[in-house]
Amino acid sequence: MKRAIFPGSFDPITLGHVDIINRAMNLFDEIIIAIGVNDDKKYLFSLEQRLEFIKDTFADQTKIKVQTYKGLTINYCKEIDANYILRGLRNPADFEFEKAIAQTNRNLSGIETVFLLTSANTAYISSSIVRDVYRHHGDISSLVPESVTKFTIK
Ligand code: ADP
To answer: Which CATH number is 21's domain given?
Structure first.
């Protein structure tokens, strides 16, 4: 069974994340979207909200599960028996940042990181831009899945 974990903060999940997950579904038997919980980090959306957005977005997909974890991603991979870490790449800055982490993770655990290049139409989307637009009451509906839009316009 090819099980991958897609780790991130997902504050909130965006159409960039959704694109990577949908495309990775052809590569893996199961994808665990894993929300990393860092007590030192401040999030805009609560953990419950972030979980709900993702569950709602992939409600019809049996191959996709959502979980939360604390600590090292490779330790969590071992715990749930995932052999691959999935990451998206948008630009050279992402690549430089991800390269060292992926090499360290492989060194420490043998776990491979699989990178998918962002689609051209979602390359510019990031959770931080979505948060900025949202905070200033802008329209985020072209940047996030419907589950997030639904919640934010309530
Ligand atoms: P982190 O806090 O780990 O950066 P994010 O939730 O921001 O978590 O991102 C999780 C993963 O999704 C990362 O691999 C990131 O590069 C990828 N990602 C984010 N936005 C996009 C996008 N627009 N296109 C492709 N990948 C993306």
So the answer is: 3.40.50.620
Q: Is 9 in the pocket of ligand 1 (CB under 6 A)?
A: yes
Question: Ligand 1: does its nearest atom lie under 6 Å from the Cβ of 28?
Answer: no
Is 127 among the residues known to form the active site? yes
Tens digits of per-residue pLDDT, 31-90? 999 999 998 999 999 999 999 999 999 999 999 999 999 999 999 999 999 999 999 999
Evaluate: CB of 113 within 6 angstroms of ligand 1.
Answer: no
| DSSP, residue by residue, 32-81 | EEEEE--TTS--SS-HHHHHHHHHHHTTT-TTEEEEEE-S-HHHHHHHHT
Domain count within the chain: 1
Does the annotation mark 9 as catalytic?
no
